[in-house]
Design a protein that fits this description.
6 helices, seven-stranded parallel beta sheet, globular, Rossmann fold, binds NADP nicotinamide-adenine-dinucleotide phosphate, alpha/beta, about 240 residues
Length: about 240
Amino acid sequence: MTGSKGVALVTGANRGIGAELCCELSTAGYEVLGTVRNPSLSEADNHVVSVATWIALDLSDWDSIRSASAEITRYASSLDVLVNNAGTNVPPASVGDKQTAAVLGSLEGASLEAMFRINAIGPLLLTQALIPLLNRGRKPRVAMLTTERASLSGSEHAGKYGYRASKVALNMFTRVLAADVHDENVIVLGMDPGWVKTSMGGLDAPVTAREAVPDLVSFLLRATMRHSGRIYDRHGVAQSW
Ligand SMILES: NC(=O)c1ccc[n+]([C@@H]2O[C@H](COP(=O)([O-])OP(=O)(O)OC[C@H]3O[C@@H](n4cnc5c(N)ncnc54)[C@H](OP(=O)(O)O)[C@@H]3O)[C@@H](O)[C@H]2O)c1
């Protein structure tokens, strides 16, 4: 079954901003495919009823990206919306504690490398694998979830090396990818959701995912080729790199 607007894929769909993205895209008329790192979480979080099909994906594992892409390609003949939402601001616990990617004096190579795999290289490789499907989509569009903390011109804070630098890499991948697929009319946007109350954002964030995501999806769905290759806040205001 394909939604009236086509097919959308959301990574990290089991919780936080990803779960709300699935609800909004489903309400907007898309059939939503959601990825989840641990397939048992799709059952535990079965409140995400808007997800038609769950796909197992661990962005730190290249084989997992290959098998997820193959499964998506078997399931859908085209893809209209891809939201690279999954990400992390700490390294996986099996690699190191949060200090090892954040605090000068405690930094470790394996932790920093893991953040780049999950936040930047994984989303790029997944998107590359899905370009043939996007090329068959209707007004295809790709969103890369980024953060103002990765702004080179707008941020002078200390710490959080792994998170911020891996999102800077994602921003550059967004820009290069947009240029590469420009002639195929695939829109590629960096999107900053703002500070949102999730496991990553924490309880002090000013808005919930339910409050923030409708604006983000509204802009994503109305963006045109002239917006491609830049970063926007959730209201569609262009942000500095
Ligand atoms: N919340 C904020 O204030 C904020 C601000 C700016 C940007 N963002 C960006 O918005 C996106 C969503 O953030 P959020 O606040 O919803 O985060 P979250 O609640 O921590 O959820 C993160 C999602 O990413 C998945 N994920 C983590 N590591 C993964 C891996 N190796 N492979 C595949 N999936 C993985 C998680 O899966 P598991 O459940 O298996 O861990 C989860 O579904 C992120 O890219 C984040 O950088 C968030």
